[in-house]
């Protein structure tokens, strides 16, 4: 596999990185919402209910298209400015805090791992790869979801967007993960499900596998995804991992951490 030259929506030619160029693979970075788990329906439910309570959109419930356009994958500061351009920032922050409280109350019952996630995590762990979760979610949400998915011991590092200078779609959270893991972007793969997240991973110099959990394929490809998969059972993903593994076995002993 070589580099795929693609035309972006603004007519510019851009280079899309190929997974096969990653060998020897050193690290795997995962977004959380929509990437490890299908949490958007829970976020959508919480936003829809609380926006109705405050009379947003003249009392008309937001649609899934509204959610994809204005909310999915974005940091709360940006969501607040988009939803409530005329509100006092403190009032918007309080609304978003209430939404996160409602989200966390629903997570234990509703959160489901993306199919094949634990198989991929085992593959990553068995090869001693470095691993981080990199999210725009608030830290309490991130820690709760990781815990419910049984991955608290899996991740070496958790990077939270609001604790960086700039959240996704800026590269800062991914650059911090690389730094904390002491990993090279040349040998690190990113898993993401949103336009904002894919842009952040690409801007940090890494190929991004895009999960089509909720967001439209075209938007994810235009954002620069190297490969789109519905879930971690996808044969193309496993074929790419096997290619990378052949290279590992031929050239490099597995680097075991700890
Ligand atoms: Mg996401």
UniProtKB/TrEMBL annotation:
Q: Which InterPro entries match?
A: Beta-PGM-like, HAD-like_sf, HAD-SF_hydro_IA, HAD_2, HAD_sf, PGP-like_dom2
Query: Which residue spans adopt a coiled-coil conformation according to this UniProt entry?
Result: none
Give this protein's Gene Ontology molecular function annotations: catalytic activity; metal ion binding
Keywords, sorted A to Z? Carbohydrate metabolism, Magnesium, Metal-binding
Requisite cofactors: Mg(2+)
State the Pfam families in the record: HAD_2
Write down the superkingdom of origin: Eukaryota
Q: Which NCBIfam families match?
A: HAD-SF-IA-v3
Q: What is this protein called?
A: Haloacid dehalogenase-like hydrolase domain-containing protein Sgpp
Please name the source species: Dendrobium nobile
């Amino acid at each position: 596999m070589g580099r795929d030259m693609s035309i972006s929506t603004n007519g510019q030619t851009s280079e899309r990185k190929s997974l096969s160029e990653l060998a020897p693979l050193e690290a795997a970075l995962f977004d959380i919402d929509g990437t490890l788990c299908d949490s958007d329906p829970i976020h959508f439910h919480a936003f829809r209910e609380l926006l109705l309570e405050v009379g947003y959109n003249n009392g008309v419930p937001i649609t899934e298209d509204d959610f994809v356009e204005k909310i999915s994958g974005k940091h709360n500061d940006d969501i607040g400015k988009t939803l409530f351009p005329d509100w006092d920032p403190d009032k918007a922050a309080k609304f978003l805090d209430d939404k996160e409280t409602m989200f966390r109350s629903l997570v234990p019952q509703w959160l489901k791992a993306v199919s094949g996630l634990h198989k991929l995590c085992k593959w990553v762990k068995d090869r001693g790869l470095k691993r981080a979760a990199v999210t725009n979610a608030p830290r309490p949400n991130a820690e709760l979801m990781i815990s419910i998915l049984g991955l608290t011991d899996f991740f070496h590092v958790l990077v939270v967007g609001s604790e960086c200078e700039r959240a996704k779609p800026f590269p800062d959270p991914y650059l911090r993960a690389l730094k904390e893991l002491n990993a090279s972007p040349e040998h690190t793969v990113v898993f993401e499900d949103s336009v904002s997240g894919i842009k952040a991973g690409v801007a940090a110099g890494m190929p991004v596998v895009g999960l089509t959990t909720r967001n439209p394929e075209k938007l994810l490809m235009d954002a620069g995804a190297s490969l789109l998969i519905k879930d971690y059972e996808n044969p193309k993903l496993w074929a790419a991992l096997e290619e990378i593994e052949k290279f590992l076995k031929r050239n490099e002993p597995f680097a075991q951490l700890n």
